[in-house]
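The aim of this short unit is practical: by the end, you should be able to scan a pair of folded records and say something sensible about each. We start with the first protein, listed as its amino acid sequence and then its structure tokens.
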Amino acid sequence: MIKKAVLQSRSLLVLLCFFIITLHFGASQAAEPKVFSLDQLIAMALETSPELKMAEQDILAAKGEYKEAQGGLRPQIDLIATGGPSEDAQFPTVALTGKNTGVIISHDEGWGRIGVFGRLDFVLTQPLYTFGKISNLKDAAALGVEAQTAAKEERRNKIVLNVKELYYAYLIALQGKNAARDADAYIDDAGKRIKRLIELKAKNVDPSDLYRMDAFAGEVKAFTAKAESGSRVAFAALQKAIGLPEHEVLRIKETELPRNPPNLEPEEEYIQRALTSRPELLEVKKGVEAKGKLTDAAKADLYPSIFAAAEGSFAGAPDREKFDNTYIPDQFNHSYAGVFAGAHWHLDFGIGRGKLDKARAEYQKMRNTQEFAEKNIPVEVVKYYQDALEAGKSFTAYEQAAVGSRRWIVTAFSNFDLGIGTARDMFDAIDRYGKNQGEYLRSLYNYHVSLARLDYAIGKRTDMP
């Protein structure tokens, strides 16, 4: 029994420990901040962007205009229902008083009795031929939907570019802080070596070298402060761009920008992609076509519209006797309907011509915009392509230079310790290392930004929502 009780106690203790460990692990997992990659940041920015939501409403509005224009091809009906009081009335009687004379005997009871009446009038109109008024407006509205869809895509690409630029700026600022720490460590090491040789009264050192070391240390601190400020600004802007709530902690998966440059395709390939895939070009192209349709609609508005119609009217007053006469209509008791064809032609003295001239001017303006875009977008592609080539070569060269200057630092430190080198040699090596590292980081950042802008310039779309 005792052994059984001991075994039960041990089992309970093991289960309790396992439960506590599980709770602790779950709590630590829940408290751990989210870690995001670049693709995840872009997806969040696209999902929460108010600009894309506005663009979606523009598309819905354009679709509404299309439905409105399409409805112009269908029949339209106008209904008017009225009702109100009516005086009771009966047919009058004509009493003959002579051969060709008579008097009307009224059977109405005066104004003592007031009844009610109701009436329904309708007109149904079906356009038959409008010289292109309605069809051109419908086509223009359909092109407007396509233009707004392309505009949304253009806004989307801008959001992607903005997130990439902020992301690269944040990572390069982090790398700048690391480079500043390296330089500070070299300066601190150099200071210790100078003080040690001063104490030993070595000939290759001078007390003024300590002042020079302080000057270098001040520059490094200033660079560190600038890198820290840049990282904070880029981090805050990135957090706002992706719509992350302030109470959530943002952590980037990557710690530095990649140094493996992709192989760029020939420049002409990128130009052709831009001319076929750039959303702005598609937007302005559809805009030109839409303006052309609106111009045709304005021209057609100068001609008549032929239509078929049906018209009818029904009225009834219970307390009034119906009066049937072809030439004298009874407004309170009747029913009739009929069909007919007609033409509507609006004539004015300059208003229609003015609208047509305005439509033609807007069409020509849109065509000029298209020509401007087709000329300048290739130039933009070439610029970003050449920037990427230049920055790629630069950061590769400066990376090699930074390796060489780091070796220079090691050699200068060794020579200083052996008494065959000076503190100036150490400071020159550290200074060159800092400059090479700074140029390397700047070129690396410019390279990634140029690639991102090149993707934007050719209208490249990543697999994002």
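Turning to the second protein, read its sequence before its tokens, just as you did above.
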Amino acid sequence: MDRQKILIGVLSGVLTVSVIIFVYQRMVKTSDMESDLETPQAMMEKKEAPKPIPTTPSGVADEIESEAALDAQALDAEIEAETAEIQRDSESLNNLSQSYDENQI
């Protein structure tokens, strides 16, 4: 009988602590979300000034070329990052294979 009381006490303590932790995490998450919200005025202040619209055909062509160059740079950076990740994965697999081979000897 004494053992059952101890078990019930421990389980109720664990349950109470779990509920307190859960409520605390929800409160922290809610306060973080509220702090992330900004007033519409603050959001408008952060917006970039719009670019002037080109009025000549050469201005439009220059704008298209500059956007294409930015896109190409972004694509090149992404390709380099993916290539580096593939190389790291390849090295990791080679090291694992070598380690496996050494352990089999």
